[in-house]
Amino acid sequence: MTMDVTIYHNPECGTSRNTLALIRHAGIEPIVIEYLTTPPSREALAEMIADAGLSVREAVRDKGTPYAALGLDNPALSDDQLLAAMLEHPILINRPFVITPIGTRLARPSEAVLDILPADAFKGPFAKEDGEAVLDERGRRLA
Predict the structure, then answer these.
(1) Distance of alpha carbon 54 from alpha carbon 107, whole angstroms
(2) Domain spanning 6-135: which superfamily?
(3) CA-to-CA distance for 115 and 10, rounded, in angstroms?
(4) CA–CA separation, 70 and 76 (whole Å)
(5) In this predicted model, what pLDDT tens digit does every residue of 22-57 receive, in sequence order?
(6) Of 3, 1, 2, whose CA–CA distance to 99 is shortest?
(7) DSSP letter at 126?
(8) CB atoms < 10 A from the CB of 96, how many?
(9) Are strands 6-9 and 31-34 parallel, antiparallel or unpaired?
(10) Cα-Cα-Cα-Cα dihedral of 106, 112, 115, 116, to 10°?
């Protein structure tokens, strides 16, 4: 299938790996951007967050990051301050973000990516790395 899909990916993250595998299961080879080494521009990050229907604060990852040490839990911080922190420390960007012509999603959980991929692209079952079934034998979403 031909479809322009971009995933902001962290290969160390199981959710990101499962999302990438779901995209490939649809027969789509996406553009894979390892955002820890190639972060998006400020404009691209802000647009991606807005297009996903999230606030900047909702797009900040706190688990396993310098979130607390940087004082990012302070509710007085502006979106600009949060974006600056995310660009300085890309590990703070929640992942994986996926962009398709259908829409943009923060694919947490990984099956959220199904909302922005063609439903008829899936021809068989799919299970996550941990064995949790996502698609049935006919390629239909289970949950």
Answers:
(1) 12
(2) Glutaredoxin (3.40.30.10)
(3) 21
(4) 13
(5) 999 999 999 999 999 999 999 999 999 999 999 999
(6) 3
(7) E
(8) 27
(9) parallel
(10) 40
- Which phi and psi (to 5°) does residue 63 adopt? -70, 125
The predicted-structure confidence for 48-68, as pLDDT tens digits, reads as follows: 999 999 999 999 999 999 999
Residues 6+ apart with CB under 8 A from 106: 52, 54, 58, 59, 94, 95, 96, 97, 112
Taking the C-alpha atoms of residue 119 and residue 92, their distance in angstroms, rounded to an integer, is 31
Domain extents in the chain: 6-135
Assess contact for 41 and 138: CB atoms under 8 A: no
Instruction: Give the active site residue among 13, 20, 22, 82.
Output: 13
**Cα 93 → chain centroid:** 9
Strand 6-9 relative to strand 97-100: parallel, antiparallel, unpaired?
antiparallel
The helix (H) or strand (E) run that includes residue 8 is strand 6-9
pTM of the model: 0.93
Question: What CA–CA distance (Å, rounded) separates 95 from 107?
Answer: 7
Residue 13 falls in the annotated catalytic set: yes
